Amino acid sequence: MGYRVISPASLLLTSLVLAHGVTQAMTQKAPNVIMFLVDDMGFNDVSWRDERMHTPNLQRLRDDGVELNQLYMLPKCTASRAAIMTGRYPYKTGLQSNQVFRHCKNNTLPLHLKTLPQYMKDLGYSTHAVGKWHLGFCNLSATPTHRGFDSFYGSYMGSIDNYKLEFTKGEGGYDFHFNEVPHWASKGHYSTDLLTQRTQSILKEELSGGGGEKTSPVFIYLAYTAVHDPIQSPSRYIKHTKCSHIKDPYRRKYCGMVAAVDESVGNITSTINALGLEDEFLLLFASDNGGAWAHGASNWPLRGHKGTVFEGGTRVAAFIHGKKFLPRSPYAYNGLLHGVDIIPTLVGAAGGTVRDDMDGLNAWQQLQQNVSSGRTEIVYNLDTEGEMGAIRHMNATSDFKLVYDKYEKLDGGCAGWQGEPPGAPKRPAIVPCPDYMLFDLSVDPQENDDVSNKFPAVLKQLTDRYSQLKKEEVKKPYYQCMKMSKPHITGGAWTHGWC
Question: Which of 40, 341, 375, 423 could form a disulfide with 336 if both were Cys (CB 3.0 to 4.6 A apart)?
């Protein structure tokens, strides 16, 4: 075996290059970060998958960035937001239920868990939450400004009328706040416009002083109330050319709401560019779960919808953009990622580290180099009481997913495929839904064929693994509706201080 002789000159040059790289790493400014989180947007609700949708700004960022082809969230929004904020699977924090936080119950994101904005603050960031919280508010300590955010502008709960800014279920009540008090002046204005304007204000206030030189980086968590129902948008997005060509009335109206989000992202990036800081930002865009097909969303060609552990309920449209920080972009990243990976990855991009006991992994270097994320297993969810869960195990030779779903069976059916584009064949509903299903995602990402009979050894391996994971499950706390939560007691608005 021969050895290559390295000259002293080569050694010196190598040392200089390495030293220069270390110096660059030490002196490079941390990125400003905006995380755009859309509510209930389907896998197929973007123009690069369904050309009928109007998302030119999102497509421009995706085409110039890194598309996250295999990013997974939880089936519903509270659990997904908890995973993003803590880096822990919800079944380990008692938040695994397929029932989201209700308005009148005294539930909160566990107060002892360190959150994403708290990690960012440790790294010198100013931190701001804009939009939907949905992680508890009955006590002041559970609200965003007490969970790591310097400011909060938005709603506490899961669903509001986009103009009245009132809770759409039960007792109604105003749900729009600035920091810790109701912000009545926002009433009557369209929610997406309000969140856009607030984000633009933060950018100008934080980054335009001192001749354009920022004193500290900014982290903004922009969680749209769109495109959750009620499906509402100004008529300008539905008429004329943006969505008027869509024949299905539900899809056309839904398209208008998506178009409003797209315009919002475009306006925010225009503000960044006007500040001369387009190279100083890292932008992450994702949905919190799959789309709700009954309201016009589409997860085609994936199976399932919001609330299910099938691919359509959990695999989301997503990308990350920032060419200065992702020099290999544009490309499509096929590494396996989960919502729990967001906190360690963003903290890693900012130059920090997180606790070793997180379920999330730091995929920042893998994203920069476009190599495997290193993740071989994800837990879609695990809810023993709700009788629903799924796990996936991937290695060099196989990629199998186990689905345990008695929840759907109780509803009298099993999730199939909805939201097919014009001309696509409509697939039949699947009844009944077996307790356990096995899919080989390497050849069947649409979950057409249950192969549990074909691969009994794999089925046993994954059911054994599922049983093992159940031993780590934290029992869901008992929460109750409390009379003091009612908005008429607090002047017509939902607020904290009743638990």
Answer: 375
Q: Based on the domain organization, do 431 and 371 belong to the same domain? A: no
Q: Are 341 and 412 part of one and the same domain?
A: no
Ordered strands of the 281-287 beta sheet: 181-182, 177-178, 151-155, 126-132, 218-223, 32-38, 281-287, 318-321, 66-68, 331-333
335-369: buried (b, 16+ CB within 10 Å) or exposed (e) per residue? bbbbbbbbbbbbbbbbbbebeeebbbbbbbebbbe
| Residues 233-273 pLDDT 10s | 888 888 766 898 898 899 999 999 999 999 999 999 999 99
- Residues known to be catalytic: 77, 134
Which H or E element spans position 252? helix 249-274
DSSP type of residue 476 = P
Tell me how many domains the chain contains.
2
pLDDT tens-place string over residues 317-363: 999 999 999 999 999 999 999 999 999 999 999 999 998 889 999 99
Domain that holds residue 449: 381-470
DSSP for 118-134 reads HHHHHTT-EEEEEEE--
Same domain? For 322 and 436 the reply is no
- Token pair recorded at residue 393: 């195990």
